[in-house]
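Q: What structure does this chain adopt?
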Amino acid sequence: MKTNPLVSQRFQELADKADAITDAKTPDFLDHDSGTYYHNINAAEFSGWAASVLNLLQRVFGEDSIHFQHVSRRGKGDGNLLFAVARAVDSHEKDSRPAL
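A:
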């Protein structure tokens, strides 16, 4: 699938922003029962970023697409899903570019 360069650039920007948000996380607590560490991220940055991801998916794939519908329903409270979407699209874009 050929992608508009501006769309590719926007997905790259969102993937970079996802990395910046996760890199800035701060430790919160350790669940001693499960051994899981929990972290805090900047909620305002995440909310703005998540809205941008949904907006881009809607513009690229359409509101009726399975991609938008799935992320819209499940992704609102699921940061991991949204981060995974941004990284997957970015990875797909890199894999789709012709080798030089």
